[in-house]
Amino acid sequence: MARRPAKLTCSFCGRNEDQCVMIIPGPDGNICSDCVEACNHLLKEVSEKETTGRKNADLPKLKIPPPPKIKAILDQYVIGHEQIKKMLAVAVHNHYKRLSQTQPEVDEAFRDVEIEKSNVLMIGPTGCGKTLFARTLAKLLDVPFAIADATTVTEAGYVGEDVENILLYLIQAAGGDIARAERGIIYIDEIDKIARKTENVSITRDVSGEGVQQALLKILEGTVSRVPAQGGRKHPQQEYLKIDTRNILFICGGAFVGLDTIVRQREGHRVIGYREAGVPPRTAETTGAPPAPDVQPEDLIRFGLIPEFVGRLPVLASMSEVTEDDLVRILTEPKNCLVRQYQKLLAMEGVALTFEDEALREMARVAMRRKTGARGLRAAMEKFMMEIMYEAPGNPDLTDITITAERVRKYGKGERF
C-alpha cells in the first residue's frame, strides 16, 4: 500500500497547507504565503525608515535661539501680551530642541528619556494677535507654516474636508518636501467652533464638533498619516502621501466666547445675566482691558472640548483684549506697522505722510468701537486712507500730507473730507 505524502508545513508559523493559501517549499524549510507577505511588509517599513533617516540627515540643522531672543523678536511684531510671549518662547524652544538627535551634552542618565511634544492652545478675542504669533514663530525658525480653519473640517464620510487635508496644506507650504514639512508649524483657527454642543453625550452624530476632535487626536499626538495627494476625500484608488506628525508643532486658536463666564463660576463669582455682579459694563471709550481669565483644563471641558483633546494641548495661553493704548502702539511700533506701510507707499509717489499723535489716538478709538481688535484697526485705516491714496499718485502739487485729529474725528462720524 502506497504511503500518503506528508503535508507541507510552514517553518515559520507551523501551519500546514490546508490552513494556508499556499506553501513554498525550500531545501531546508518551507514558508507560507502569509509569512511572505509579513516579511515583505517588514522590509518595506525598514526601507521607509532608512529613507526618512537619509532625508532628515540632508535637512539643514535648525538654529534654535534661546527663549529671551525668541521673545525679543516677537516684540518687534506683536504688541503687548508679555507673559504669553514668554510662554510661547519656552514652548517653541523646547519643542525644536527635542528634535535634535545628537545631544552630547546630555547626561547618560537621561539618554532614554523621551521628551513629549507640547502643542499650544491660544485663547483670546478676535484681533488680539493669535495668528500673528504663530506666523512670526514660523518665520523666525524658517520652517514651513500652514493655517487651517477648523470650521471646514468634518468627520470622515460627511460633507466637508477630512482632517488629513490640514497636513496637505503644510506639505504644499514646504514645496512638497515631506521631510521638511514634518518639522513645520500648523495653526488651526476657530478651534472653539468644534466644541460639543452640550456637556451631555448626544444620541445624534456631531460630525463637525466632537467627531472632528476625535479625528484630530492621533494627528496632534503624533502618527504616520496618509494624506490624499490631490486633497479631497479619501478613496481606495488614489495616491497617498505619508507624513509623520510627531515633530509637527500644532498651535490651535479660538475666541471661546462665554469661557470667561465658566471661569468665573468655577472661581465662585456670582454672575447676573451676561455680567459679573458689581462690575460696571465696559464701553467703547474704555481704555483698560480686563485681565485674561485663568483658564484651567476643566473649564475647556465644560465649554465642550473632550478631555482627550484638551490633554493633547498642554500649553494654555489665555490672551486679553487689546486696549486703546495697544492699538496706538500697533499703528507705530512694529516693524511692518500700518503707518510705515502707508508712508512707504506715498514715498514712492514723492509724498511725505505725517500723523499727529492725537490723530493716532482718534484712529485707535474708531477701531475700538468696531470691537474687532487689530483687524478693526486695519479696516479703519484702509477706509480712511482710500481718498488720499486715490488723489496722491500723479499729483505734482501734493508733496506733504499731515493727518490731524480733527480729520480722523470727521471720518469717525461718517463725514467726507
What key attributes describe this structure?
single chain; about 425 residues; alpha/beta; 5-stranded parallel sheet; two-stranded antiparallel ribbon; 13 strands
Describe this structure in words.
The protein has 417 residues and is α/β, with parallel strands linked by helices. Helices cover 41% and strands 12% of the residues. The protein has 15 helices and 13 strands. The protein has helices spanning 33-58, 67-77, 82-97, 130-141, 164-173, 178-181, 210-221, 259-266, 297-303, 307-311, 324-332, 338-347, 357-370, 373-391, 405-412; strands at residues 23-25, 30-32, 120-123, 145-149, 185-189, 224-228, 240-244, 249-254, 271-272, 275-276, 315-318, 352-355, 400-403. It has a 5-stranded parallel β-sheet with strand order 4-5-8-3-11, sandwiched between helices. A two-stranded antiparallel sheet has the order 1-2. Strand 9 (271-272) and strand 10 form a beta hairpin. Helix 2 crosses helix 3 and helix 8 packs across helix 9 (297-303). Residues 272-288 have low confidence and may be disordered.
Task: List the topology elements.
Blueprint (H helix, E strand, L loop, with lengths): L22 E3 L4 E3 H26 L8 H11 L4 H16 L22 E4 L6 H12 L3 E5 L14 H10 L4 H4 L3 E5 L20 H12 L2 E5 L11 E5 L4 E6 L4 H8 L4 E2 L2 E2 L20 H7 L3 H5 L3 E4 L5 H9 L5 H10 L4 E4 L1 H14 L2 H19 L8 E4 L1 H8 L5
Parallel strand pairs: 3-8, 3-11, 4-5, 5-8, 12-13
Antiparallel strand pairs: 1-2, 6-7, 9-10
Helix pairs in contact: 2-3, 2-4, 8-9, 11-13, 13-14, 13-15
